[in-house]
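Lecture notes, unit on protein representations.

Consider one protein chain, 344 amino acids long.
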Amino acid sequence: MEQNKEAVTTVADYTDDERAELNDRTDAQYKKIIAEGKYKDLLLKCGANSKYSVSNIMLMLEQNPDMTVAKSMNEWAREGRHIKEGAASMEIIAPTKEEYEVTAKDKDGNPKLDEEGNEIVYTREKTVGFHPVYVFDVAATEGAEVKPYAIGKKVSDKENKIILDGVFAALSAKHWKYKFTDESEFADDENYKIDKEKKTVKICKGLGNTATALTAIEGASRAINDNYKGRGFEGMTGENAEKIEADSRACILAAHFGLDTSGYNFDYMKNMTEEQTDMFRENLNLVCASTKLVMDKISRAFYKDQQARAQAAPDPSADNGGGLEADEDPFRPANAKRSEMEAA
């Protein structure tokens, strides 16, 4: 899941002209993907490469149309794989961060003090530029087998808790929350509701672990997606746009969590007008940003659990994977509600 930070290397930031050229390249690649009817393929790549922005994924596809899963040389090495001799890398964009300090304030605007009377100071980061980094597709590597995490046919209590911890962290990052609500508040085809006024995702009780986990993931992604749409949103609006967004989020999440994506069909996207295609680029940015946040926080939750288990039981032979092993029990009771991702 989450990996250690890369070694810090000083690389010159892109100039404004270089950044403008990169933006033109991603815009051209986006239009090409829509025109060629490969929108779903782009979504699948977003799901398989959750740490990257959609712009970076389009840059990778421009350089290598056959790319599937990309990581840095150090990340592949940590997974027991090495780069094949002569393999080509792909250049993507990374933010250049700079640390700064912020003094904690109380409700009256006065500095908060610690027990010794010193001002409490937090370290924050801000983006001051962008620089190139280089990644390799899995096909350019060899070594240990790649085993991405997937939600199995039966989610254990422990796995469900970890996923919900990740969902909570993603929602909290945008000052949202979730709560479980009685089934009587939902229509027959509903598993969750979005309460924008209270910034709460309401999840139906009694869904079972698998449906609960998937529903929480879907609901959080939608809430965060809608939360990103501020007053300056210039993308497509209306029911059609919302449907495309919902299907796009579900397809990305299904791809990421190892669920069936065969039911998703976006052929209609290539019939969009040039104006609609240009406008929907903003929608796509938000779809990918919202799903990326949820996927990242869930990955971090699993990583924290792995670290805790490793400290508690340092002998690998004593660790059976925290109860996430496969189970032959049925996917869900016949009368249980289904999630949108599952239904696809």
